[in-house]
Amino acid sequence: MVWFWVLVLFTANLKLGLAHIHGGEQPLAKINILQTTVALHESASISAEPVLLGLKGEDTEWITVNFVNPMPSLDDWVGVFSPAKFDPLTCPPVNERKKQLPYICSAPIKYKYANESSSYYAKTGTASLRFQLINQRADFSFALFSGGLSDPILVAISNPISFANPKAPLYPRLAQGKSWNEMTVTWTSGYDIDEAVPFVEWGRKGDLQVRSPAGTLTFKQNSMCGSPASTVGWRDPGFIHTSFLKDLWPNFVYMYRMGHLLYNGSVVWSKTYSFKSSPYPGQNSLQRVVIFGDMGKAERDGSNEYSDYQPGSLNTTDQLIRDLDNIDIVFHIGDLTYSNGYISQWDQFTAQVEPIASTVPYMIASGNHERDWPNSGSFYDTPDSGGECGVPAETMFYYPAENKAKFWYSTDYGLFHFCIADSEHDWREGSEQYRFIEQCLASVDRHRQPWLIFSAHRVLGYSSNDWYSQEGAYEEPMGRDGLQKLWQKYKVDIAFYGHVHNYERSCPIYQNQCVNKEKNHYSGTVNGTIHVVVGGAGSHLSKFSQLIPYWSIYRDYDFGFVKLTAFNQSSLLFEYKKSRDGKVYDSFTISRDYKDVLACVHDGCEPTTLAS
To answer: Which residue numbers delimit the Purple acid phosphatase Fn3-like domain (predicted)?
Structure first.
């Protein structure tokens, strides 16, 4: 009976976090790698070329894998392993009683089916595949398996290949610091502090460059909360470095590059990058913000994508890269990689977004796939993080929170003030986070920064997604209880959410009611908050309810993102763009003056006195 109620409570909690169920599992999770049996065949072979990569400093290379299997089948597959060497002695026993060691205890970093490039493979047993590799601080090998993913049989192992400098500084990620005139640069390398001193060389374009030191962090396997992150999904993350570039002049282009000073006096350099510093808070100028959630990652060589786990991810990434000259800052509001405990995927994600994150601030929020794990302090007791329990996200990216484990923070960008909440920790009235949210909303000077934005991963506002409609409230359970009074009191313009993998925009809402009949242009008094679900950046899409609620103005079952353009203190353009073509499919404008922000709204008027 006790176990029955435990199961009931677990199922109830799981229902609160349903988004991770809809659309399949992490592709690497389908590989039963611990059950691999070894049947190396003398007539089977697999080889990879070129053997040495990155001879001209490249961090990404295409390679060719040729293989022969005298007994081919349709479910044969090729896995990419890094590090290259399989060492059964490092594996924990599969069977504790028999002390039986598996031959392979780490999942591949990617894989393809052997017949992908040749429909004749099952007859001929000969084929080749093309893979794109990124520099991940270790060498690579390729293994040919039969038996499918569920019962893998190792048939052949290739020669190892590697990058010329596997430890090179790579994949810079910019983020706003704790003040408007500070930019942080975070990157990954293979250099610990006992090998080299990390720093960033930077300065205004055309001026003398200066050097700023960087701190170094990493995390270990025993920091993971559970499997697969602590078992087959574990891979050494390397070293994560962050440097703080301070006292920036507003609106200037700065050049920068990461360096590691070796103890022999030489320096290992990255490529040279650039960014434009933030405008002064309240500066009346053109400012462009992109917001989305749940993008995930995908492989440009087609690896791992048989299940279409994140089918829109590359389209969104590529659209942002194409429009990068017209973007000033990006907010990715949770569910970043969907690595779900397969740590190698964090490198691949940072490589995918590097053209964006190295050029404009890439601000993140915490989602269920970053944080949630049973008995780990997350608000939801679900296994969505795959045992990561927030550690990789908190280490791989910088964000200006007071406590990295409490993923809430505020940041300013010119005319915008952003309050980023953490839906994976308690946000309810009386909580520590609730007090932060109120302080963040109350602290903004609306004369200088008229555009007030709230954001969280889960839908704490409004969504007509099918599972929310089944709950009956069209929101995350307990979502807007307590928060709605803050949005109303402080006149939040727009609230953004991810988690639900589609796009939806509400009317301006006050006390659960639409307070403006307009759909495309809003002007005058700020009398309600517009709620936007923008979780369709890449992961499998979420279905809507058949019933369209009265507050829902526009719904789209497709991949896309939102762009906000502030022309000045009085005019804002909102655009929803689809990832497949970059065209605008929904939009509205807001026009107003400062007196409209101050104006008395509904029952939220400030108290007055009759005294003269």
So the answer is: 46-165
